[in-house]
Amino acid sequence: MNDKKNEKFLDGRRAVAAGHVTEVYGPVQALLAYLQEKGGEFTFISLPFSFSSIPAAAAVDYRVGAEVGRWRGHANKGPALWMYLRDFIFVLGTLRRKRGCRLFFGIDNLNCFAGIVARRLGWVTKVVYYVIDYTPRRFGNRLLNWIYHCIDRYCVRHADYVWNLSERMAEVRRTQGLSAKRNMVVPVGVKLDETRTVQEKEVDRYRLVLISHLTASKGVQLALAAMAKIVEGSPRARLEIIGTGPYESELKKLAAPLIDKGLVKFSGAMGHEQLFDYLPTCGIALAPYVQDKDSISYYADPTKPKEYLACSLPVVITRLPWTAELIHKEGMGLAIDYDKRQLVEACLRLLGDDDFFWECRRRARKYAMGLDWRMIYDKALEQMGEEKGSI
Question: How far apart are CA 382 and CA 226, in angstroms?
Answer without folding.
Answer: 46
